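Possible regression after last week's pipeline update?

I re-ran a chain I had predicted before the update to compare outputs. Posting the input and the new output here so someone can diff against the archived version. Not blocking, just want to make sure nothing changed silently.
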Amino acid sequence: MASVSASAVRRATRLGGSHLEITAFIPILLIIAAISGTVWVYVVRSLSKGTRPLPMAPRSKPLWNPIVVGVTLLIVGLAVYSQIASAQPVAAGESAEPAPDAALQLLQENCLVNLLSVALLLVLLLLRRSARLSDFGIGLADWRKQVRIGAMGFVASLLPVYAVVALTLAWRDPETQHPLLRMLSDHPSPTVVAWIAFAVVVTAPLAEELQYRVIVQGWLQSFLPAAWVIPGVAILFSGVHEFPDSLPLVPLALILGYVYYRTHSYLAVVTLHALFNAMNLAFSLWGRL
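New output (post-update):
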């Protein structure tokens, strides 16, 4: 969803013409840059004083169940394979997009798969004797603080992400839009909008943050330095998304990885991810007005 605001601006230019549509976005983008910039000023000042922007949260070292790691790596591997397969050219005479009813059914199935994967992985995390979800940063203790940290991470992500979006505008057109944005553009019914919102704001953050940050990053951090793990998982996470959306997702994934590493909070990174997707979806819907 990282390309939504850019695609909305470009779509406004194609459909209407003119500076009126584009300038409607400029004040919002400037406000976003200013707010996000203030967070980065705080980060730079903290680093210059020798302190980290986020305190290191206490945590226990969980014993990783090889089953949960293997299942998660299988899920991630299938996502990588799916991305590679979808990048193959479409044969002549074939349609690249499914019919509206089929597309909606696929979206619903994807939501169900995401929720089932979350339930399965949570159960597998608890298979180890005396294992607790809190060992993996999953819980609602001090949930307001976790949500607040996620919200601040979301604000911090906006400036670097949209800077990369601006730098990659030349590669963006209707054919390179996120599949859900193409679906929203082609079939903008209330039902489709509701299911897309549920997918990108609820099920995708829950599933992806559990897979990439909690399990893959958490497991790798048990035997590798975080300075290697966070960028590696960020690249992996970005790589399972379509180009050029994958490029702006790199800074987002780096921030997600850093937030989880410092806070050990699943709720914080889910909040960050959900807010980011929600804002991008709002940009896309606004671009259709």
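Follow-up from reviewer: compared with the archived run. The longest helix spans residues 190-221. Marking as no regression found.
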